[in-house]
């Protein structure tokens, strides 16, 4: 069996490099020949109206968010983990909430931000007042594309709201209810092959965001049955082989975000669970089932 790990050439993060090394090592331990390639090699392209690809592998482990290359690889019959569609739904936070809507998935009240195409355009007070009437202060503003808790802003009054929206109005963004009971604290749950594998409580004493990259601490936790069932339903709805789901904690658990390319260094350290091994086993099992 041969696999390809596709990385982004502009991502120099330690966590991403760690994940790439771990997955390559665990796949190799399972007898899979693995090649690591950055996504600037034009692995797929369109010529004479037909998708062409230089990739010759049984699968591609896709550590990028470039939906175009992933879609073209799938057209050439290459099994991509995660699929291009699932990755795209997770990459855009508003699309994530839309995908999970009408399915009984508890989520904070969420409004899609109005994208500005005119550089002379000004954000109207009436528009912001509608947001406040729905969500009240404090509230959360998120850019739809972002990682590691970045591009997420807690705003406490109208001046902060106006300043924040004026700064990001040319990008896709959303407004979201602030769940105060979960401020600085959430549960990150790893789901592989439709089953919860492990989880940790992430907590910050200095920030409303709990991400480890922003100074949060992590501690292993047993996943309550209701949260496990919720996360497994979320992964199934979006169609994910692997994901990290962020659950807000309070009177009832709510889904905050779904990460198709979730890092697992902190998770492995906190839980002593070999996440890379379990993901690799799922990949090998899936490809074998396809070829039998």
Topology (elements, then pairings):
Elements: E1 2-7, H1 14-29, E2 33-38, E3 44-47, E4 50-53, E5 59-63, H2 67-75, E6 79-81, H3 84-91, H4 93-100, E7 110-112, H5 125-135, E8 139-143, E9 152-155, H6 158-168, E10 173-177, E11 185-192, E12 195-203, E13 217-220, H7 225-238, E14 242-248, E15 254-259, H8 265-271, H9 275-291
Number of helices: 9
Report the major sheet: 5 strands, antiparallel
Gyration radius, to the nearest Å?
20 Å
Q: How much helical structure, as a percent, in the residues?
A: 25-40%
Summarize model confidence as the mean pLDDT. 94
Distance between the termini: 13 Å
Q: Which stretches of 5+ consecutive residues score pLDDT under 50? A: none
Q: Tell me the fraction of residues in β-strands, as a range.
A: 25-35%
Strand order across the biggest sheet?
Answer: 13-12-11-14-15
Topology as H/E string? EHEEEEHEHHEHEEHEEEEHEEHH
Going by helix content, strand content and strand pairing, the class is: alpha+beta
Strand element count: 15
Oligomer: single chain
What best-fitting shape do the alpha-carbon axes yield?
globular
Polypeptide structure, described:
By secondary structure, this protein is of the alpha+beta class. The chain has 9 helices and 15 strands. It has helices spanning about 15-30, 65-75, 85-90, 95-100, 125-135, 160-170, 225-240, 265-270, 275-290, and strands at about 1-5, 35-40, 45, 50-55, 60-65, 80, 110, 140-145, 150-155, 175, 185-190, 195-205, 215-220, 240-250, 255-260. A 5-stranded antiparallel beta sheet has the order 13-12-11-14-15. α2 (about 65-75) packs antiparallel against α3 and α3 (about 85-90) packs across α4 (about 95-100). The longest helix has 17 residues, at about 275-290. The chain is globular, with a radius of gyration of 20 Å. The two termini are about 15 Å apart. The mean pLDDT is about 95.
């Amino acid at each position: 069996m041969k696999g390809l790990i596709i990385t982004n050439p502009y991502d120099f993060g330690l966590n991403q490099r760690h994940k790439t090394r771990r997955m390559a090592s665990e796949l190799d331990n399972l007898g899979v020949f693995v090649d690591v390639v950055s996504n600037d090699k034009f692995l797929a392209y369109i010529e004479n109206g037909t998708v062409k690809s230089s990739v010759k592998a049984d699968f591609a482990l896709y550590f990028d968010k470039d939906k175009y290359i992933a879609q073209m690889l799938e057209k050439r019959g290459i099994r991509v983990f995660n699929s291009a569609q699932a990755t795209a739904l997770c990459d855009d936070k508003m699309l994530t909430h839309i995908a999970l809507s009408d399915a009984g998935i508890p989520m904070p009240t969420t409004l899609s931000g109005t994208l500005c195409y005119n550089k002379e355009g000004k954000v109207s007070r009436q528009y912001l007042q509608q947001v406040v009437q729905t969500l009240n202060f404090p509230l959360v503003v998120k850019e739809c594309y972002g990682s590691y808790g970045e591009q997420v802003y807690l705003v406490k009054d109208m001046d902060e709201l106006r300043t924040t929206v004026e700064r990001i109005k040319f990008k896709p963004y959303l407004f979201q209810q602030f769940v105060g009971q979960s401020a600085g604290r959430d549960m990150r749950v790893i789901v592989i092959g439709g089953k919860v594998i492990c989880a940790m409580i992430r907590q910050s004493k200095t920030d409303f965001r709990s991400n480890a990259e922003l100074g949060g601490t992590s501690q292993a936790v047993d996943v309550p049955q209701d949260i496990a069932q919720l996360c497994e339903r979320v992964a199934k709805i979006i169609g994910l082989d692997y994901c990290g789901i962020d659950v807000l904690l309070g009177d009832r658990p709510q889904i905050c975000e779904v990460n198709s390319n979730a890092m697992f260094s902190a998770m492995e350290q906190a839980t002593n669970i070999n996440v890379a091994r379990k993901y690799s086993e799922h990949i090998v099992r899936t490809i074998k089932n396809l070829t039998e």
